[in-house]
Amino acid sequence: ASMRALTEDADRAYELDRQHVFHSWSAQELINPLVITRAEGSYVWDGQGRKLLDFTSQLVYTNLGHGHPRIVEAIQEQAAALCTVAPQYANGTRSEAARLIASHTPGDLNRVFFTNGGADANEHAIRMARLHTGKHKVLSTYRSYHGGTQLAINVTGDPRRWPNDTGSTGNVHFFGPFLYRSPFHSTTEQEERERALDHLEQVIALEGPSTIAAVILESIPGTAGIMIPPPGYLRGVRELCDKHGIVFIADEVMSGFGRSGEWFAIEHAGVVPDLLTFAKGVNSGYVPLGGVAISDAIFQSFAKRPYPGGLTYSGHPLACAAAVASIEVMEAERIVEHSAALGEEVFGPSLRSLAERHQWIGEVRGVGAFWAIELVADRETREPLAPYGGSSPEMGAVIAATMANGVLPFANFNRIHAVPPINISAEEAGEGIRALDAALGEARAAVAS
Ligand code: PLP
């Protein structure tokens, strides 16, 4: 069958999906997946031929939009030249992808171990940290997501961990900073930073620094709510790690590759982690790819003894070709600068003006093309419009109204995230925000009636 014909036949796609496809994170018979038959730039088309602005970048990964011709051509050319080669060989495309990635990661993160995605990148980063330090425990935050494999889901701080937190040892969770819902009763960013660092210092002291291999953090927590850490927080974490011989792992799977208006979100803090994990935006997810960028010190740990880990598809040429093309496009088209400008000139001002007009908006926060709208039932109590880990008729109405206004929304509990491709034009971004504006009004009216 022609792939194009398979992709465009919406009825058959839906019918066979329901018969044979088992979906992530879902009660299989309670879902009704939207068929996507076509995509271009910042838009997708559903099975009814309806055009939707993709304000999700799928799962926040098509950073250069759909069908970018340079990336598609690179994959086609690589497929014709050398479609695959095992990881033990050297391959020019993989070498170039590693060089380009290392040229943009901060500090001395000069080596790249390639994985298939973000979860396995975090698994390997933790394995490296344990072997490098000879210690075992891993500290991570509540309100985080690090992936769906056994260790990564145990490190995660999200309700998806709850049914899975049976099979892994040494995971300890602590509270990261989140001023709007401060676990420390802070009223200012400075208080939140100081108290969050005091809290982490106490967790390290009470767990025992001699038992802790790593602290893993999303430089800006993504799915959990795009909480920008207060100034000085990540530097404080870096200092605590240095003081206690703990490896600092920055998870940049969602926040990396321009999403935050820097190549990597940790650059906003001027801090260099020991390991940095990436996936998603490295090649806009056109072919699965993730990896770990490794400091010189940790590299030295494996210079003369073997690293006990690997994957059949580590550094797959098709995925690496897509990464080379993506990074070249980002450099040539100044996509990181564009992302920063979108945040300052479009998302920041227009979402704040939305917050003035809609009672349901408790807070908007973000940077670059990475924004969260926190919806509340009551602005005084900050009661979320859906409970943590759950949904509500109000959130259901917001999502439905957003789609009825032509926009595919990213929703998580009581939040809507505005996370479009980072090469979206200011006009398209404005179109999406106007749809959210209309949707919030319509949803409130619908729920009230
Ligand atoms: N880390 C973060 C911050 C993520 O957002 C994700 C995915 O959403 C992951 C890790 C897991 O990546 P993957 O789904 O590619 O395994």
Short description:
This protein is an alpha/beta fold. It has helices spanning 3-8, 10-20, 57-60, 69-81, 92-104, 118-133, 150-155, 189-207, 233-244, 296-301, 317-332, 335-357, 393-404, 426-448; strands spanning 36-40, 43-46, 51-54, 111-115, 137-141, 171-174, 212-218, 247-251, 275-278, 290-294, 361-367, 370-378, 383-384, 407-408, 410-412, 415-418. It folds into two domains: 34-67 and 334-448, Aspartate Aminotransferase, domain 1, CATH 3.90.1150.10; 70-332, Aspartate Aminotransferase, domain 2 (3-Layer(aba) Sandwich).
List strands and helices in order, with pairings.
Elements lengths: L2 H6 L1 H11 L15 E5 L2 E4 L4 E4 L2 H4 L8 H13 L10 H13 L6 E5 L2 H16 L3 E5 L8 H6 L15 E4 L14 H19 L4 E7 L14 H12 L2 E5 L23 E4 L11 E5 L1 H6 L15 H16 L2 H23 L3 E7 L2 E9 L4 E2 L8 H12 L2 E2 L1 E3 L2 E4 L7 H23 L1
Parallel strand pairs: 3-14, 5-6, 5-7, 7-8, 8-9
Antiparallel strand pairs: 1-2, 2-3, 4-10, 9-10, 11-12, 12-13, 12-16, 15-16
The structure holds pyridoxal-5'-phosphate.
Pfam family, one: Aminotran_3
Keywords: Aminotransferase, Pyridoxal phosphate, Transferase
Cofactor: pyridoxal 5'-phosphate
Keywords:
single chain; 449 residues; alpha/beta; Aspartate Aminotransferase, domain 1; Aspartate Aminotransferase, domain 2; seven-stranded mixed sheet; five-stranded antiparallel sheet; 14 helices; 16 strands; binds pyridoxal-5'-phosphate
